[in-house]
Design brief:
Structural class: alpha/beta
Shape: globular
Largest sheet: 5 strands, parallel
Distance between the termini: 33 Å
Mean pLDDT: 92
Number of helices: 10
Number of strands: 7
């Protein structure tokens, strides 16, 4: 009986030590929301996501690079366009050198794709949106063996959103058609790339819609005050949503 107890204790110790070695390297891909526009304290959502992960028991280290770019669409991030994809690969190249870290890509795109006019390629149809995301993800997985991708759902914006770009109710409606496409793509990759592509945050859309006055920065636009970018509190909330989704899938 004593021998069995010692063996169990030994196995538990090994398990705990293994868990304690969890190290992550994350490249955050996205638009102005990922970049942190609206959060005036200088801390974008990725910073809060990483802080959440670092506080998790068993996480030894988290390195990250935020390559979010304001106004960007999935068209801008396509490898073939040569616009922003190299930002992701340059960041990943440096992080990939840390062989004891799990390389992750955290992606949140779609807001600008949904616009009526303004951003590159907008409006992007739901079919093209799915195709673009698939192309981006497939290239990342091919370039970085063993890497993983977390795809977050886009978040809500007000139906009068109209700055230099025009979104409005039509844009928000189109944005919501992207969600089933993302979910279907992730389901498809379970067969094509098992254990490498995961559904990220799915809850922030409804939460931000419900609490938009507290979580968004009011901005003056061509159809009045609109809500598109999370404020300081909203940035923190969104980052923690991402952190929770990443933790659920990779820890």
């Amino acid at each position: 009986m004593k021998f069995k107890t010692l063996v169990a204790a030994f196995l538990l110790l090994i398990s705990l030590n293994t868990f304690a070695q969890t190290k992550l390297s994350i490249v955050f891909i996205g638009n102005s929301i990922t970049q942190g526009k609206g959060g005036d304290d200088g801390f974008p959502p990725p910073t809060h996501a990483v802080n959440y992960l670092k506080a998790k028991k068993g996480v030894d280290d988290v390195s990250f690079i935020n390559v979010g770019r304001s106004g960007s669409t999935t068209v801008d991030w396509l490898p073939a366009t040569g616009k922003y994809f190299t930002l992701a690969t340059t960041a990943a190249d440096s992080l990939y050198l840390q062989k004891d870290h799990q390389l992750l890509f955290s992606m949140k795109l779609g807001t600008n794709d949904s616009a009526i006019q303004g951003p590159n390629g907008a409006p992007v149809s739901k079919e093209d949106y799915k195709r673009n995301v698939k192309t981006i993800v497939s290239e990342l997985l091919k370039r970085y063996p063993g890497s993983k991708v977390i795809i977050h759902h886009p978040i809500w914006y007000s139906t009068n959103t109209y700055n230099r770009s025009k979104y409005l109710a039509e844009g928000l409606e189109r944005l919501q058609t992207y969600v089933p496409e993302l979910d279907e793509l992730i389901k498809e990759t379970k067969t094509a790339e098992p254990g490498r592509v995961f559904k990220g945050d799915t809850k922030a859309f409804k939460y931000f819609k419900k609490h938009y006055l507290e979580l968004f920065k009011p901005e003056n636009g061509q159809q009045g005050v609109f809500y598109l970018h999370p404020n300081v509190e909203g940035v923190k909330v969104l980052g923690e949503y991402w952190g929770k989704a990443i933790a659920k899938n990779v820890l």
